[in-house]
Amino acid sequence: MVYIPGFLVNKVYERGSLRNTEDGFEFCFLNRMTPLRISGMRDISVEVDGMRYSIDKLRLALGGRPINLSDGRLDEVISFTRNSKLVIRVVSDQLSDGKHIIKINFITNEYGGATLKVSDTVGEIEAPSLWGRIKSRIKARPGPLSIEGQLGGVPLDPDFSRLEAVLRREEPDCVPLFEAEIAIPIQEWFLGREINSTADEIEFYIRAGYDFVPVLPPFFSPRLMRTASDKDGTLGEGTRQRAWLTESEGIIKTIKDVEEFPWPAAEEVDLSSFYEMAELLPSRMKILGMLVPAAIFGNCSQAMGLENFSYALYDDPAVVEALFELVGSTYVQITKRLTLVPRLGAVLMSDDLAFTEGALFSPQVYRKYVFPWYKKIGEILDSAGLPFIFHSDGKLWDILDDLADCGVKAIHPIEPQAMDIVEVKKRYGNKFCILGNIDLDYTLTRGTVDEVEEQVKTRIRELGPGGGYCLAASNSIPDYVKPENYKAMVEAGKRYGKYPIRV
Question: Which CATH number fits domain 160-227+237-496: 3.40.50.720, 3.40.190.10, 3.20.20.210, 2.160.20.80?
Answer without folding.
Answer: 3.20.20.210
